[in-house]
Amino acid sequence: MDKPAKDTLFQIDSVEEDFVFNEHVVEVFDDMLDRSVPFYREVIDSTARLLDCFLNRGDTVYDLGCATGTTLLEFSRLLEDRGLKFVGVDNSAPMLDKARLKTELYSKTESLSFLEEDITKIDHPEAGAFIVNYTLQFIRPLQRGDFVRQLYDNLRPGGVLLLSEKVISHDRRLNREYIAIYHRFKKKKGYSELEIAKKREALENVLIPFSIDENKTLLKNCGFKSVDTYFQWFNFASFIAVKPS
Ligand SMILES: C[S@@+](CC[C@H](N)C(=O)[O-])C[C@H]1O[C@@H](n2cnc3c(N)ncnc32)[C@H](O)[C@@H]1O
Question: Which ligand 1 atom sits nearest the alpha carbon of residue 95?
Answer without folding.
Answer: 27
